[in-house]
Design goal:
Blueprint: H1 4-18, E1 23-28, E2 49-55, E3 58-63, E4 67-71, E5 76-81, E6 96-102, E7 107-112, E8 120-124, H2 131-134, H3 147-156, H4 162-167, H5 177-186, H6 200-221, H7 229-236, E9 255-259, E10 262-266, H8 268-271, H9 280-286
Antiparallel strand pairs: 1-6, 2-3, 3-4, 4-8, 5-7, 6-7, 9-10
Helix pairs in contact: 1-6, 5-6
Bound molecules: zinc ion (ZN).
Length: about 290
């Protein structure tokens, strides 16, 4: 799943290729992806692209008065093509959900693998009319996001587990399952620690970890073509998706525990005083 560093790179990639070009036409293949109906997708035809920006994990393509906004969700991706096929895209078994063709024949496909239909596309005059955009928390890449802001957010989250708080887009925009694992590993914090129990020193360490992990991921992704971002994300991760491998800080074996509708990975020695976290869902079922 693309998170903020990948979406930031996609925004830069698309800025270089799309700004100044007009949208020739947009073809919707997976009808469930389009979440708005007025204005229609065809209202974008002929409009010039003025900017491409990131809002949390959303991409916002701004044209003359209209925005094409999308969220790639868990299995979605963007595939750039210097030359799109002339024939209209047809619904079929493939992953293609939406095709955007520019005036020079280049453009991109939004694809979604698997059977879950979570990719979301919006055509709006104001991105803030999309509730999930309007409710986004502060963006950790901005200067406004400082340690005091983080401390306030953690206090407000009460006893909620820090892992869930980092991932909550209404609290902090852009961090997902992978980078929250990386951030907590770098900060040597248990993912299950209650947010309001962090000491001032721990908040400081967490703050530095958030800034550093995201900045270094963006640096690694910088300049990569859209097609190379996915591989780069995976190879740059130190704990996420690496259960059973050795922690490169301490040599312990990276562990895994279920969390919400997914699972998280962590290093027991670095993060939980050597203890394995109990699978709370499982222990609840056994009671
Ligand atoms: Zn470790």
């Amino acid at each position: 799943m693309p998170e903020m560093p990948e979406v930031e790179s996609l925004a830069q990639f698309l800025t270089e290729r799309c700004v100044g070009h007009a949208i020739d036409r947009i073809e919707l293949v997976a009808f469930s992806a389009l979440k708005t109906y007025d204005p229609p997708l065809s209202a974008l035809h002929g409009l010039q692209i003025e900017s491409v920006t990131r809002r949390g994990k959303f991409l916002d393509i701004s044209t003359q008065g209209l925005h094409l906004v999308f969220h790639l969700a868990r299995a979605g991706w963007l595939r750039w093509r210097d030359s799109l096929p002339e024939a209209p895209a047809r619904p079929g078994k493939g992953p293609l959900a939406l095709r955007v063709r520019l005036d020079d024949g280049s453009g991109f496909d939004l694809t979604e693998a698997g059977t879950q239909r979570k990719l979301a596309v919006y055509v709006v005059t104001d991105p803030m009319s999309i509730p999930m955009v309007a409710t986004l928390g502060p963006d950790p890449l901005t200067d406004e996001f400082d340690q005091a802001v983080l401390a306030g957010l953690l206090a407000k989250a009460g006893r909620a587990q820090i892992k869930g708080v980092l991932k909550d887009q209404r609290t902090i925009a852009g961090i997902g399952n992978a980078y929250s694992d990386e951030i907590l590993h770098a900060a040597k914090l248990s993912p299950f620690k209650p947010s309001n129990s962090l000491t001032e020193t721990e908040v400081g360490t967490l703050f530095v970890a958030i800034k550093n992990e995201l900045a270094s991921a963006i640096k690694r992704a910088d300049g990569l073509a859209a097609k190379d971002l996915k591989g780069e994300k995976k190879s740059g991760l130190r704990v996420h998706g690496r259960a059973g491998e050795k922690c490169d800080v301490c040599g312990d074996t990276i562990a895994e525990v279920s969390f919400a509708d997914s699972s998280l990975q962590y290093c027991p020695t670095c993060q939980t005083g050597g203890k394995k976290l109990a699978d709370r869902r499982l222990s609840k079922l056994l009671k």
